[in-house]
Amino acid sequence: MATPEYLKLKPVEAIAALRDRLAIPLSDYKGLDARIHDHAFMVSGLMRADLLEATKWLIGKALEDGTSFEQFTRSFNRRIGRAGYQPSGQRIKLIFDTNINKSYWQGREKVMRSPEMLAKRPLWLWRHRDSVVPRPTHKALHNKAIPADHPFWKSISFPLGFQCKCTCMSVTEDYCKRNGIEILYNPPDPDTLIDNPSFKRGTDTKTRAQILEQGLKRLSPDLRTQVKKQIKTNA
User: Fold this and answer.
1) CB proximity list for 119: less than 8 A, separation 6 or greater
2) What's the per-residue H, E or C state across 1-40?
3) What pLDDT sits at residue 75?
4) Are 136 and 128 in contact (CB under 8 A)?
5) Could you give the CA distance from residue 153 to residue 27 in angstroms, rounded to a whole number?
6) How far apart are CA 123 and CA 182, in angstroms?
7) Which of 18, 21, 91, 138 is positioned for an S-S bond with 87, CB 3.0–4.6 A?
8) What is the pLDDT of residue 230?
9) How far apart (Å, rounded) are the C-alpha atoms in residues 215 and 26?
10) Per-residue pLDDT tens over the stretch 52-98
11) CA-to-CA distance for 46 and 155, rounded, in angstroms?
């Protein structure tokens, strides 16, 4: 049986979200505003800008072609491993899952936050998906809806921790009623759902440039100059 054409469609918004993230080679990103993950592509310990860009390209290729993790690993080892960066298989899996999930969420969130979608589907439904060690606080929210305009969502940006696979979808109130879904008008404190501060999205009004500057300050002068050239090129 032929695959329906709609299942062959590329995740355009997810691909665009990944492309918009700036590659910043950092040894680690502890202490940074979690929103930097919305605007920067980083792999802890991968300090060569060219290899980081190549890794980002491979993630983008996986999104465009529906590449499996096994295919990604082979490509990663050929292009990145032979150049000297050789993480464990588990680490490669973390790089793959985290960036694929982050890109899908950013693409989905952009669509869900559009005025048209908010007017049609004003509730966001939490979906807990399998993870190696399910987090009880995440599992407790499975199939619970929270109003899209609730302040709760300002601090939430999936994934909420390493190997977290939770996400959400926009739904109508009628959908919730028909399916017996509880609507939470007083959801839990987001801090109870996030593993550590590095995954918490700030709620102030910093611009993209101000958020990225936190990471740029940690680079050597030469690397900072290279990355700033990228910013101007992509502006």
Assistant:
1) none
2) CCCCHHHHCCCHHHHHHHHHCEECCCCCCCCCCCCHHHHE
3) 96
4) no
5) 30
6) 11
7) 91
8) 66
9) 8
10) 999 999 999 999 998 899 999 999 999 999 998 999 999 999 999 99
11) 28
Please state, in angstroms and rounded to a whole number, the distance separating the CA atoms of residues 171 and 181.
Answer: 11
CA nearest neighbour of 54 among 44, 45, 41: 41
CA terminus-to-terminus distance, the chain: 45
Highest-pLDDT range among 30-39, 112-121, 150-159: 112-121
Beta bridge partners of 23: 41
What is the residue type of 234? N
What tokens does 126 get? 């939490």
* Burial classification of residue 103, based on how many CB atoms lie within 10 Å of its CB (0-12 exposed, 13-18 middle, 19 or more buried): buried
Of 203, 228, 225, 221, nearest to 33 by C-alpha is 203
Token pair in block for residue 88: 């464990």
d(CA 174, CA 73): 43
CA atoms within 13 A on the CB side of 135: 18
